[in-house]
Amino acid sequence: MPQISTFDTNPAARAAELREEIRKHDYLYYVEAAPTISDREYDALMQELLDIERSYPALVTPDSPTARVGGEPLKIFPTVQHEIQMLSLANTYTREEITDFDRRVREGLEGEKHQIVSELKYDGVAVSLRYENGILSIGATRGDGVTGDDITQNIRTIRSIPLQVHPTFFEGKEIKNFEVRGEVFMMKDDFVAINTDREERGEKLYANPRNLSAGTLKQLDSREVAKRPLSMMCYYLYSADVRLQSHSDNLKLLREMGFPVSPHVQVCDTLEDIFVFIDSWDQKRESLPFFIDGIVLKVNSMRQQDMLGAIARSPKWAIAYKFEAAKAQTLLKDISFQVGRTGVVTPVAELQPVFLAGSTVSRATLHNGDYIAGLDIRIGDTVIVEKGGDVIPKVSGYVAEARPADAAQFTFPTICPCEHHTPLHRPDGEANYYCDHAECPWQIRRKLTHFSSRDAMDIEGLGEKVVDQLVELKLLFTIADIYELHTHRDELLALDRWGEKSVDNLLAAIELSKQKPFARVLFSIGIRFVGEGGAKILARAFGSVDGLASATVEQLTAVPEIGGRIAGSVVEFFNDETEMAILNRLRAAGLRCELSDNEQQSISKVLEGKTFVITGELEQMSRREAGEAIERHGGKVSGSVSKKTSYVVVGTSPGSKFDKARELGVTILNEEEFLIMVAG
Fold first, then answer.
1. In 234-270, which residue ranges form alpha helices assigned H by DSSP?
2. Apex CA 239: angle with CA 236 and CA 242, to 5°?
3. Which is the catalytic residue, given 24, 75, 113, 121?
4. Which of 348, 501, 539, 625 gives 621 a disulfide partner, CB atoms 3.0 to 4.6 angstroms apart?
5. All domains of the chain, ordered by start, with CATH?
6. pLDDT in tens, 237-270
7. Cα distances (angstroms) measured from residue 168 to each of 172, 537, 652
């Protein structure tokens, strides 16, 4: 048992003694998982150190364990530039892609023998830790890979991260100044406990541990961060103090310094070794106390890593193999229905809660009546639910031998579940049923939420819960009412949990949304079948709301990519007096209902009639930006390669689309050739 005493004649010596003692116990508890004292004894040590530092502020050091308690809230995170760019790994999903990665490595090393280190891919948030003279100086997020947010104050609260490292030597020289990278994550049990507590308090559950970890790290109040049980696993070391030799040796050095390092690492000499490692952990991943979503493969030799280098944002010497979608079995308790913004009625599986791929799943989409009939899913079945990464959970089948004898075939309802009980209709040739009642509260809420969403008008602060609250209070009936909320400022201030700052922020975001371009407005108003891409095409083709409102079906279908279904829906929308009244109110509020002069001048038909597919990572722009450039010049972006594809734009680590393009003889463009094509 440690000796616990009060400070007396030499507080500096006692403070130093306590810091060393607490560091030792932090390491034993959070890294080695082998504590030697009770929580009560540990708390007594920490309290004694806090008492000394409060009485003698000059004795406080930047590496003191008391820094883990959290400091005063920040107003904003400063940014920090990474000394070495934080690259992101290219993903693979098949053995063939791993074999291809190994081939590229061999070619890049000109046949030189190499080893691959296989390790678990923790499902967390990448961070960088910078140490000076062995003491943590900066903790930062990845950001864009070049600059990130300085979250040092939050990083200090994570007890598995040493604030001061154990003295460590390499080839006789001490490593004092260095950078460490790793994943911040949350253990399964801790995540479940947090969600269980929120459920008991009637609060919305967190989607998955990764999102919760990321959100926690971006808290401006580190005292709140300190309350969350975050962990870290380290996998990268760089130091200009010494010439490091291999990744596997670096992991040993990290462990010696006192960092948490995964014990599940294997140095592989052959592809077969890699596949055995992958298969083993694919089977065992559910037994781990934390979440992984794949395996990371890295060339072991640091010299060979330098030889291979990187392209765009990904290293050539490393790759991530992602596991297939996780599956689970659970009870289908019921089938409920929700009505979307266009009136489409979607069936939803109400499930016995089951933990799957990092989150608790209690609901899953069933798409439509034909989907249910095709799978012959019935209430009371034990169903198979699958979810890969952030993909929405879906029911993909049922367990035949577990079906109850009285399970009846499912019949789609004919009446809308809303309070108006409107008869549903199913248009010819469609799988969906619709409710057409203009005052259907489900549709009103969905329209408002869609309108304010990030991809639409991007009104921060007007999310689903706020929309529900304002609809319930009859402050919102239509999307046009959003732009009259400023006249209800006093009513908003009177609402529970609404302060002056939150009200002003919402009203400012609403005002800011008026600057969104015409295409975004067109997408936001919710014309059935008109998605984000269709709205851009229609905006370019007709230039304004008035031009679109006067267009006939024939004129609409004459526009490339606009078919009869979209054309009919557009004509129906602009013939609806209610919709036009709302649109006129939006125009009066100041929303942009026509292309700006700059947009008109930038319209190009250089790529009209051309279809592009983009594969791999681009260096000078994101794939979304590349797609926007194609559309700006009249081209179309597709997700699959076919004989009708005009060009395939290839970045680094291209997938199977590249092979398909070569097989079909489709013209392949590298990034430089593509940039020349869309210049101007």
1. 247-257
2. 125
3. 121
4. 625
5. 11-60 (1.10.287.610), 91-322 (3.30.470.30), 326-402 (2.40.50.140), 441-515 (1.10.150.20), 518-602 (1.10.150.20), 611-678 (3.40.50.10190)
6. 999 999 999 999 999 999 999 999 999 999 999 9
7. 9, 61, 38
